[in-house]
UniProtKB/TrEMBL annotation:
One of its GO terms (molecular function) is ITP diphosphatase activity. Pfam families: Ham1p_like. HAMAP family: HAM1_NTPase. This is Inosine triphosphate pyrophosphatase. It catalyses: dITP + H2O = dIMP + diphosphate + H(+); XTP + H2O = XMP + diphosphate + H(+); ITP + H2O = IMP + diphosphate + H(+). GO terms for biological process: deoxyribonucleoside triphosphate catabolic process; nucleotide metabolic process. The lineage of its organism: Eukaryota, Fungi, Dikarya, Ascomycota, Saccharomycotina. Homodimer. Its cofactor is Mg(2+); Mn(2+). Pyrophosphatase that hydrolyzes non-canonical purine nucleotides such as inosine triphosphate (ITP), deoxyinosine triphosphate (dITP) or xanthosine 5'-triphosphate (XTP) to their respective monophosphate derivatives. The enzyme does not distinguish between the deoxy- and ribose forms. Probably excludes non-canonical purines from RNA and DNA precursor pools, thus preventing their incorporation into RNA and DNA and avoiding chromosomal lesions. Binds 1 divalent metal cation per subunit; can use either Mg(2+) or Mn(2+). Belongs to the HAM1 NTPase family. CDD domains: HAM1 (cd00515).
Length: 196
């Protein structure tokens, strides 16, 4: 295994595609690193804050990999302002059980449809030290899904900084520029390049 190889543990192919774009070698990148995906079922603790959930995932990943293997995981939450942050990290199970239409409808009758998308990345370096990076994007949960249905709740989240489109209506490059994942991985990239 190459020493500059970093393992990204995820079972989510949409995440993996975005992260590969976000960490792509732009030529100027020194030192260079490569990303290898593994799909391990890692525990996602309940009742914990977002940093704890991602840290627990990463600690378990370290235990399952050979000593000295650099690895990162990420956990992404969708937090409704009106519900004091819920569904948060549980959004996966809401979307899976109810479908995105009903997730959007949960806010019907409330004035505040504000939400925050949050990606928390935890990177364990080859010395086994943990580093946490978080990206947050504020937006609105639209009434009716709009755009492609490829990725979870992209079709109901309209970021405040965009031009009124949901994530699912945007080109991937545009989403990456303003997304919570784009922000979190920009921080990881800076760290890997020794700039933070
Ligand atoms: O529309 C979306 N736009 C995004 O940008 C995005 N990022 C994550 N998600 C979904 O939100 C839940 C997070 O749960 P999650 O972080 O535990 O992911 P996961 O279990 O699918 O993968 P992993 O834990 O193996 O990495 C899962 O349902 C993901 O599909 C997104 N949906
Ligand atoms: Mg998960």
């Amino acid at each position: 295994m190459a020493s500059n190889e970093i393992v990204f543990i995820t079972g989510n192919v949409n995440k993996l595609n975005e992260v590969r774009m976000l960490l792509a070698n732009d030529g100027a990148q020194k030192p260079s690193f490569t990303i290898r995906n593994m799909n391990l079922d890692l525990e996602e603790v309940q009742g914990a804050n977002l940093e704890e959930i991602a840290l627990t995932k990463c600690k378990e990943a370290v235990q399952k990999l050979p000593t000295g293997q650099a690895v990162f995981v990420e956990d992404t939450a969708l937090c409704f302002d009106e519900f004091n942050g819920l569904p948060g990290a549980y959004i996966k199970w809401f979307v899976k059980s109810m479908g995105v239409e009903k997730v959007a409808q949960m806010l019907n009758g409330f004035e505040n449809r504000g939400a925050k998308a949050v990606t928390t990345v935890v990177y364990a370096d080859n010395k086994g030290e943990f580093h946490t990076f978080q990206g947050i994007t504020a937006g609105t949960i639209v009434n009716t899904p709009r755009g492609s249905r490829t990725f979870g709740w992209d079709c109901i989240f309209q970021p405040n900084e965009g031009s009124g489109e949901t994530y699912a209506e945007m080109a991937k490059e545009q989403k990456n520029l303003i997304s919570q994942r784009g922000r979190a991985f920009a921080k990881l990239k800076m760290h890997l390049q020794g700039k933070s």
